[in-house]
Structure formats: C-alpha cells, structure tokens
Amino acid sequence: MRADFVTFRAFLPDKSLVLHSDGNGAAQVVAGAMHAALELSYEFSPLDAKGIGQWAQKDAQAIRTASDFASVIRSKKQAALEQQLSQFVSLPSAAPDANAENYKASKASPVEFAFSCCLNSLADPMFPPRRVAWSGPGGERSEVRLAANISGWMAVKKADAEKAGRREVMAACAGIFESCRRKLPHLLCGDAKIAEYESALDAFLSKFPERKSFSRLPEILESADREKIADKLEAISGSPLARELFYYECFSRAGFTPFIQQETIGLVYPELKIPKPRGNFGKKKRK
Length: 287
Known about the structure:
Elements: E1 5-12, E2 15-21, H1 26-43, H2 49-60, H3 66-74, H4 78-85, H5 111-123, E3 143-150, E4 153-160, H6 166-205, H7 216-227, H8 229-237, H9 241-254, H10 262-268
Antiparallel strand pairs: 1-2, 1-3, 3-4
Helix pairs in contact: 1-6, 2-5, 3-7, 4-5, 6-8, 6-9, 7-9, 8-9
C-alpha cells in the first residue's frame, strides 16, 4: 500500500518552491501550494497584477473585515470597475483569424481576470497571511507540479513552463488552486469534524442560491460577518485557514471570485482544453 504524500514543486527562472508532506502537516503543504498556485495564476495571466494591487491599495487600506469589504464594494459600479481595470490587461497585437479552421470565438473578456485580481487585492486584509516563501531559482527545467495521494485524494497536475504557453500555465495553476481549495477543508477537519464543518457552511450558503450578481456580494459578506460564520468554522477546524476558505465560498456564491476560475479561462480562451475537476474531495456537491 502506497504511503500518503503531498508534493508541490515550482521551478521558474526567477524563483522556486518545494513543499512536501508524508502525511503529517499535509494541510499546511496543501495551503502553501494553494497560495503559490494563486500567485502564479496571476503571474502567467495577461495582466499587470502588481499594477492592479497598487491601484487597489487605497481601498484595501480601509478593509479589515468582511463588512469593511462590503462597504467598499457597495460604492463601486461593476461596469466602471471593468473599464478602469482594462488598462491593466495586455491584449494580443492582432485579432485571431475568424476564418481559420480551428477558430473559436471567445465568450468572455480577459478583463474578468483583472476583476478577480482586483477582488483578491482588496480582500487580502480579510484573510490570514498568504505569503509564499519563495526561494531562488532551482531545478533542471521550469515547471509547476502538484502530486497527491492522501485521504482518498489522488491528484497529478502539472505544467511545463518551458514548452507550454503562458495561457496553459495559467490554466494549470488555476486547476491546482481549485484542487487544493476543495480538499483543504477535509484535511483541516479530518473525518471526525468534516460533517460538522460542512453542515455549518451549507446552513449559511443555502440562504443565498448561487447566482452571478455583483450587488449580492456585499449582502452575503455582511450577513457572514453578522452571523460570525468564519469564527464558527475556524473553531470547528481549529485553523484560521477556514476563514479564507469560507470567504472564497461567499465570493463564489455571488459569481465574483478573488481567484481565476478554470471555467473563465475556458470562456476567454476556448481553444484551450480545460479539464473538469475529478475525484473525491471529501465534501458533497452543493446545490
């Protein structure tokens, strides 16, 4: 029988990161992989992510809680934000040939990536520290890889940063982020607590049917703050990471996430083959 393990490796021209667990401390390794993949998904996107962070800094300074975030967002108009954020998006110098045999029309704009990046910068003060402890360059080739076989979770996700295009690497990193995000609650809670965690989470989310609406985002976050759901989930799991995971769920409920979704990548770049999530992540599908 193969021993439990989780390994994340990122070797890039300017930095590297290696995380590994043989079972003990797996949750911290998966959290580290999640944060690194989040950072890399923006790094390989067609965005000036640092520019967006600096642009959002003034508003972010006023945010410490979910209610603070809601107050800031309520004063914004979605269309105006998209227009302002478009300056940070790098568009192709030439439009694709609509007459090409393999042409597929985009169904979304890369400005959606910028919108997610902006939300991520604004929400950062709400989360526990998400800093990634990068080291200097290392490894024989540039790649990003996650491999796991633990608690019923088997995953192998990778991207060759030398051979693949930036879009493919972005998609792979978004996939690694999503896999880690989905598995992390079970690793934090274990078999003994995961049912209680999911019950508390679902009891709150069920009040807000999943629907894309920017105006609903502050409503959901203010309700979460009033009911102290993040505190409850942190107490059940015994980890402050539960707060971050919970807020990701709130953002997802409103259809505006502070992370790049693979589904959005597939809409912006329909020529890419985006794999659907597979496997048992230790939680039931939410309605």
